[in-house]
Specification:
Length: 114
């Protein structure tokens, strides 16, 4: 069973950038991968997805600011987040898209605040 470990979160000022990483313990080739986030009191939402071939998709809330990428050889998925806003504050998770219950990790906390 593949385990996914997220890293790279932290405290950043509005307008700043962060790069998140998701390391998989096994091959992710062939899977559509996604980054999700859950803010306090809100439902978890998908913020980016990428196919094995590199086709990406984003909701309007992050389009133009977030970029998802993947390195199939390293079994790693990345999320570059620019122009961060306070409303981006959340715990960020990676998973397949659609998500598999067994693959949810602990996530990484991103806090955008001055």
């Amino acid at each position: 069973q593949v385990q996914l470990v997220e890293s790279g979160g932290g405290l950043v000022q509005p307008g700043g950038s962060l790069r998140l990483s998701c390391a998989a313990s096994g091959s992710i080739f062939g899977f559509i991968m996604g980054w999700y986030r859950q803010a306090p009191g809100k439902q978890r939402e998908l913020v980016a997805s990428i196919t094995s071939g590199g086709i990406t998709n984003y909701p309007d809330s992050v389009k133009g600011r977030f970029t998802i990428s993947r390195d199939n050889a390293k079994n790693t998925v990345y999320l570059q987040m620019n122009s961060l806003k306070p409303e981006d504050t959340a715990v960020y998770y990676c998973n397949t898209n659609p998500p598999a219950m067994a693959y949810w990790g602990k996530g990484t906390l991103v806090t955008v605040s001055s």
